Structure formats: C-alpha cells, structure tokens
Amino acid sequence: MASLIPSEKISIVVEDDRTGLSITTLKRAIADNLFYNQGKFPTIASKNDYYLALAYTVRDRLVHHWLNTVQTYLKQEVKVVCYLSAEFLMGPHLNNNLINLGIESRIRQAVEELGLDFQELVDQEEEPGLGNGGLGRLAACYLDSMATLEIPAIGYGIRYEFGIFDQEIRDGWQVEITDKWLQYGNPWEIARPEYSVQVNLGGHTETYVDRDGNYRVRWLPDRVIKGIPYDTPIVGYQVNTANTLRLWKAEAIESFNFQTFNIGNYYGAVNEKIYSENITKVLYPNDEQLQGKQLRLEQQYFFVSCSLQDMIRLHLSTGNSLDTFDGKFAIQLNDTHPAIAIAELMRLLIDERFMDWEQAWSITEKSFGYTNHTLLPEALEKWSLELFNRLLPRHLEIIYEINRRFLDRVRIKYPQDNDKLARLSLIDETGARYVRMAHLACVGSHAINGVAELHTHLLQQTVLKDFYQLFPEKFSNKTNGVTPRRWMVLSNPRLTKLICSKIGDSWIKNLDELRKLEQFVDDSAFCQQWQQIKQEVKQDLAIRIRQRTGIIVNPNSLFDIQAKRIHEYKRQHLNALHIITLYNCLKQNPNLDVIPRTFIFGGKAAPGYWMAKLMIKLINSVGEIVNQDPDICDRMKVVFFPDYNVTNAQPIYPAADLSEQISTAGKEASGTGNMKFSLNGALTIGTLDGANVEIREEVGAENFFLFGLTAAEVQQLKTKGYNPRDYYNSNPQLKAAIDLINSGFFSHGDTELFKPLTESLLNYDPYLLFADYQSYIDCQKKVSQAFRDRANWTKMSILNVARMGKFSSDRAIKEYCRDIWNVAPVPIELEDLCPDGQ
Ligand code: GPV
C-alpha cells in the first residue's frame, strides 16, 4: 500500500485489490466489484453484471497509468495534440484494453476460474457507436497510435446519448433502431463536472469602448448551455501511456428555470432543459451528405467551444500566458465538422482575453491543421448566412474580418481577378449566400492534408486548386492507416499467433517487420497453416452468418466481401450486377464448372438516403432468389450481414478471401477497410481509387485484381458525354442483368420496385457502373480462376500481409507528428504504487 497523492493531511490508499495482477487477486476483485458496485449476489447476477464487474476490475488496473500520464504532461508542460472530431468510432474497449495492457491471458484465466465464460462477458459490451464510418474509425485508430507512440494527445468530441442506429433487416429492407448504448451504464468513462464550461448561442453583438479607449465587441447571447466533459482512457500498446478521450455532454445551466417555475409554467421550465440537452442527444447518421440542419451546427460549435475553453484552462493552469498557446497545442481538424474552431479561437483570444487581431491570428494559424476527407461536392460543408448569423452572430463578424484581410492579400497577388476572389472567398455568393467551411479551414490552418496520394493530388487539382496555388507550402499528403492492435491482434488471434511464431512480436509496434514473412512463402508447412487458419476463421463467420440470418454458407467457397457504408459511389450495386450475371450464366449452363462463392455484404444506409436503402433491398431480394434456387446447388450464396459496426467487423475482415474496393475512381478519398482486409490476408479486387493505388503499389500488381477506368478516364468520359444506355444496348450480359431486375424476377413480380435504381443507371449512371461493368466481370473471372490454384492464392495472401507495413496508423501518426504537429514522444514513468512490494 502506498500514498498516491502525497499530502500532509490526506493520503489516498490504493488497495492491492485494485492493482494486483495475481489470479487470486483478480478473482477477488471481480467478486468485490460485483458485490459493491453492482450490488448483486453471484446467484442473481446477470451476465451484464459480471461484465461490468470485470470492466471495473480492468479499469482499476489502468487508472494509475492514466493519472500518471496526465500528471506528466502537466508537469513537463509538453506540447499536446488535440484531435477535434465530431465522430470517434471506438469499438468495444474491454478486449482492446486487455491487449494493450498485456493482461489478457491472466484476466481470461481468472474469469474462467470463477466458472464464467470469458467470451460471453466480452460480448455483453455495447460498443460506443459514436461515428458513421471511415472518418470516425480513423479517429479511433489515430488515438490508439498516439497512445502507443507515447504522443501526448487528447481526443475531443461529442458524447452522443444515441450513437449510430442499430440496423435490422425486415423483409429485405433496412429498419433503424435507436442505439441506447448508455442504458446499462458506461464503465469506461469518468464524468468531470468540475471542468464544465459554458457555451453561448444566438442573440446579438454590440461594441463598447474599454478603459483604455479601445473598441471592443461583446456578444449578448440568448442561450447559454453547459458542457460537461466525460473522460475515457486510451491505453497505448505495452507502454505506460494512457491518453484521454474527452467527450462533451450538453446540459441546461440550471436544471430548473425558477423564474418560469415560480409563475407556474412547469412545462416551460422543463422544456428549456430538454432543449439544451438536445444538442448532444443524437449522432447525425448521414455519411458524406450534409443536411444543413441548425442542430448540427449547434453540435459542432458546442463541442468546439467546450474543447478550446478546456485547452485555454489547461494552458493557464500551468501558469502560462496565451502568447505561447500555439507552442503547447497542435489542433487537428478532422474534416470541416470542427472548422468553426478557427473563428472561436479568434473570438476567445480577442473578445475574452483582449488580444490584438494580428497576434491572435498568428496563434490561430500556427495552432490548426486541417484534414480533408472527401471530394464529393454534396459533403462539402456550407452554412447559410441567415442560419449562421442567427446562431453565431459574433463568429460571422469574425469570419467577415478574416475574409476581408484574406481577400486583400489575394487581390495583391492576383490584381483584377474577380473570378479568383469569388472562388477563394469564405463566402459563397454565387446564389443564396453561404459560409464555406473548407475555405475557413484552409485560411486558418498552417497545414492542409488529404488522406491518400491520389486524393491529395485531386484536392490540389480540383476542390482546393486555388488554395493550392496560393499556399502550396501548406499542402501535404498523409495516407491513412489502421491500428494493427485492433485490426489484427485483437480480431485475428489465430493469424497473430502464427505470425509471432515465425517472426516474433515486434511487428505489432513496427508493422514493416511483416516483410519478414516473405521468406516463408515457399515454406509449404507454413502455407498449410496459413490456409488452415483462413479456413477456421471462415467457419467461425459461417456460424455467425447462420445465427444472424439463418443462411447456411459453405466455408470452402470463396468469401467475397464488401463491408462499408452503403453509397452509390461505393457501388454495392455493381457487385450486385456481377452476382446477377453469374446467376444468369449458371441458369443458362447449369453444369458450368464455377468456383463456389459466398457474397457477403455489410453496411448501413443513411436513413434518408433512398437509393442506398433500395440497394440494400436489391441485395436481399437477389439473395432470396439465388439462395433458394435448386439449379444453383449452393454454388452461390448472397448474405447481407445486418448491423455492420466495429464489433461485427472484427470477425468479418479475417474471414475474407476477396475484398471488394470498387468505388468509381476519384471518389473514395482513401478507404481504410481496404487496408484491414489486406492486412488479414484477403486479396483485393479494386479500382485505382483512394489508397487502393498505394496498396497495389506495395503488394505488387500481380497480387491485386485491378479493373475499371482511372480517375482521369472517368473525367474524360464525363466531359465527352457519357451515355449509359449505349453500354446497355451493346452488352447482352449487362442488358440481361438489368432486364431481369426490371422483370420483377427478384421482387415477386413487382416490376416497379427497383425502377428508381435501374432508371437512374440507364439515364444518368453518375458513378459509371455501366462503363466499368465489363472490366469488372472479366476481372472477377480472373479471381475465380486464381482461386482454383489454392497454393498460389495462399502465396498471394501471405504477400499481401507481408507488404502491408505502410498502412499502420503508427506510420501515419509519425508523419503527422513530424510534418504538421511538431510533437515528440513523452515516455511515462510509473511511480510504483506498492514500494513495499505488497
Ligand atoms: I467527409 N469519410 C467518412 O467516412 N465520412 C465523412 O463524412 C467523410 C469522409 C471517409 C472517406 O469516405 C474515406 O475514403 C476515408 O478513408 C475516411 O473518411 C477516412 O479518411
């Protein structure tokens, strides 16, 4: 026993039961937490009670890593990365923490000695689904890498009460169910009401003259909301670092408005409370499609203001002056969702701390970096001036002033080029007037990056072309990465074990070392084991598929998987056209010798995105027919795995033979699922889009199934005039597939159901499915051919894994640290909690 906080009067004693790692201690700790935290006797405790008792036992064992980390950062006054993101798609914490703490096998043993099923308890955890897809998951991988690389970091975001909806499939359609992830409590967070802040909204501004005769502006808001931080520890892999994810919850400043209450308007008073708390109620479930809703702008401003106020508090608490702010914080904007931070930091410095404009601007510019994650025009955020002015009147004034000064500089560089000025302006005045958030982010940041080489290149040539010409030095590429801890060690323990048996375990922190596997590609025993593991993992997935959907699939078939958000640009319907084409071939030639395939889909559609929902219905309808057809003799199965999320993704990636990365070239900024599949030994069928380009470069063209137009060819074809109907008329297989859908064959005779989808393809086909169709079909034939030679397929699989080192999020984070953040590792020393050896 030892004192954690040395103080004359109080000494907090840390009990051995909260830190000890012997099996006996762990068992006692779990029993203790069950009794005192859950308030249950073992006889009546539910699985969830046991899960929570276990979770608290694990949490106790990381608290002193966490507190020491925070204390070290404060004492050493280090520079901290503040990763601002509207989404963090963390996935379940329990298993990840066990792996990163290196206590998985002890905990498992203790749990089993208590007569409990470890996996059953792990399965109890409700994952925090605080994100939509790739963008939110990238933020989570980056937090893991920053902690593992001992980089001081705080993730700042929103504690949505309801995360991304749970998806059910009924009659082939997506049905959305509210995600009540907090209903049984969240053992991984600690509320810190003592660090609450206030956030203003609405009202108006006025000028006044201060005591020194300076003109100042004050904001007189008409709403004030309280932000309460909830902290979750982010444990690094086998280091002492535990960084913080700080998520903000909105509350009313007082739980009752007594004024209103006293005059008898009880409902009015409670209403106001509900109104304030609405801000962090629910995650917007649209991925890359803005809705322009007021509440969304309120969410963005709310968490950004809370976070910046928190940074300023932290900075001043160590006795610093704001003059040195940019030396102590590197603030990264995860897309434009938090871009209002640029105007908010200016406001805090100028209006609240009375700094002059030039100094405030210099600090702001040096503090911020901006990552762009899409080129899709419908995702580029803009807010109408009317809304902006109503909600954030002071910020609009500041943005006008930023714009005025910015355009003055542009005018000097490009005299008499009004088109250029209009294109660069922070205000879009081409029609109804809007604030352009990407422009604010570019002007207010010292660094701008895309997320794959092709994406960065296209950004510079298209969406941000004028900014690139103006400030080429701000631009760089940071190709995305994924954490091998969650996406290999945790999700694919069998393959992890095999790899470790051959090359040790240092690849887990230094993924380039996977190259050492190349020496075993001709080792037949090793190849045998590799293939065997893939087989076992496919069997596991087959069992899950049967449990979730009732569909029986053959684990010996080729597992062909497309798992990602449902979007027209990602082209799940191109995959469906291949399935229908293959089906037609088998119907025409029932004895055709084909490689049996299981087509697996996973992904959610935005609830208001009708075409995406129709794509889900199409996949399920095709499955319903194909899966039952006796002529097919189980040579094809189509599965839509419901509720694709981090939990469900973990057993999916390892089971894939083929990874579908088939977006229209130029549309997918990077993709990260593509990396997870390949890291787990799937081969990719893909276009030259996003990070596919770099994956192919790394694994070798001979180990990658390439098809389709290039981004440049897509552009040319569109310029020339693209007529999808020409492809339909001249390609009998394509025509047969479309006609079969339109005939009502997959829809119980309903010829109207899929018309919106087929008509859109025939008349517009904005994502060029028809142009890429034949190339895709031909490429799939090559895939089937290649799968016949299992030995060679296994070799290609091994080479894919061996050459994936580049796509570790550790590599990506090191680049951000070096090129953008200028931060270095800060190792954490653990003071011994039990110096007496107790
Ligand atoms: I902007 N992305 C996303 O998931 N949601 C968004 O709102 C936006 C981008 C994704 C891109 O689509 C992926 O290509 C990319 O890999 C991912 O962000 C992370 O950069």
Structure description:
The protein is α/β, with parallel strands linked by helices. It folds into two domains: 77-92 and 127-477, Rossmann fold (3-Layer(aba) Sandwich), CATH 3.40.50.2000; 511-708 and 767-805, Rossmann fold, CATH 3.40.50. It has 33 helices and 25 strands. The longest helix is centred in the first third of the chain and has 30 residues, at 47-76. The chain is globular, with a radius of gyration of 28 Å. The chain binds 1-(beta-D-glucopyranosyl)-5-iodopyrimidine-2,4(1H,3H)-dione. 1-(beta-D-glucopyranosyl)-5-iodopyrimidine-2,4(1H,3H)-dione binds next to helix 6.
Strand content: 5-15%
CATH topology group of the largest domain:
Rossmann fold
Helix content: 40-55%
- At CATH level 2, the architecture of the largest domain is 3-Layer(aba) Sandwich
Q: Helix/strand/pairing class, anyone?
A: alpha/beta
Detail the poorly predicted runs.
1-7, 833-838
Distance between the termini: 6 Å
Per DSSP, the total helix count is 33
Please tally the β strands and state the result. 25
Determine the mean pLDDT: 95
Give the bound compounds.
Answer: 1-(beta-D-glucopyranosyl)-5-iodopyrimidine-2,4(1H,3H)-dione
* Cα-atom radius of gyration: 28 Å
Number of structural units classed as domains: 2
Which shape, going by the Cα principal axes? globular
Reading off the top of the CATH hierarchy, the class of the largest domain is best stated as Alpha Beta
